[in-house]
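Possible race condition, two jobs.
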Amino acid sequence: MGGMINININRYSRSKYKYRVETHLHTSQASACAVNTGAEMARSRKCEGCCAIIVTDHFFNGYTAIRGNYSWDDKISLFMKGYQDAKRTGDMIGLDVYFGFEFCDRGTEFLICNYGEEKLRAYPDIMTDPIEKVLTRIRKEGGFIIHAHPFRNEYYIQNPGKIYPEYVDAVEVINTHNRTKESNRQALEYAEKYNLIKFGGSDTHSSYIEDGGMAFPRKPESLDDIINMARKEECVILGEQYLV
């Protein structure tokens, strides 16, 4: 791991890195495992000190709350409700809210950003295409892919530790809901070995106060700005106690 850990994963100076972003967050409208609505999650993260959140609800091939025999368009409309609820509230309270989703392939999960509602509506085959084809298409169409908690070892993950360095842009190197520090250490090694962008997230499912995510020296202007600052390592990844 070498010196990289001292560059962007450390006990950060709150005076310098005071703009906190939660990059991995679920809402009860779309994620079956989440406790609180998008509005409640937005308020709790604002109270926690975040300036922005990325809503990353479980997609239909994960632990989704969208059950039933709906058309593809209706399913997408239902899926968007958690994000939309968070966005409405964020606009009122001064919290930037960005859309993402957590895509699952036999338990291996990816956080997808910059791939919005209209692109999802136009890609119903996302549910049946091989994962390599899905990831390739998403990136070709401008999406940004973070390999979420890649070394988590749980009963629902068929291939724990399987990596996709040629198909992703970034790695979630600290997930504060991982059960072991070793899972995060392996994720950091993965990112450094393949020169992938490092992200961190709480993977929060409730309004309970969390201590993960990322912090920046200035307020990000957009989701692209978050990505670009992470690429340049102009940030810190929070939750060092879950790594060392």
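Job #2 (started ~2 s after job #1):
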Amino acid sequence: MRRCGLRSIIILLAIAIVSATAFGITAEPRPMHAQRRVTRIQINDFALTDQNSTPFEFKNLAGKVVVVAFAYTTCPDVCPLITASLRQVQSGLTKEERKHVRLMTVTTDPEIDSPKVLTAYAKRYGAEFDNWSFLTGNLTALKKIWQNFGVGVERKGRGLDPKAVLADVRAMLREH
């Protein structure tokens, strides 16, 4: 029962983050008439570099619930909110739950977001690296990952659009 509750919380958080990203955050409440869209897309394995300059392979997360955020460190608006929300999720997980849940932040600005920059960004938010990786790589590899997760990355001056998604224990994209 506890595991089901944890997954529900993570799914609800992912939906909230994606909704905030997609619809913008305003002070005025808006009636929500959108219906939930469930997707089941297989996530292809990929390799990137984490905040410690260590190779990272998605296949090593098999059997875990994975919350994936796409953001960049110089983002002035939504990215800090997404990162702070993921930190709250991380803080709410027990030691045992952390073994089954992985948080990932994948950069959408590899020109700036080196491992050293990602480490500083993560530390600003108090991220703990036992179950949270901040990832970067070359543009070609990242473009394939963005496409696999359905992330449309486009330049907006300095930086790109952020997004968050959820992959289940079978590496299937669940919420989009």
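The beta strands are 38-42, 47-49, 55-57, 65-71, 101-107, 132-135, 163-167, 172-175.
Logs attached separately.
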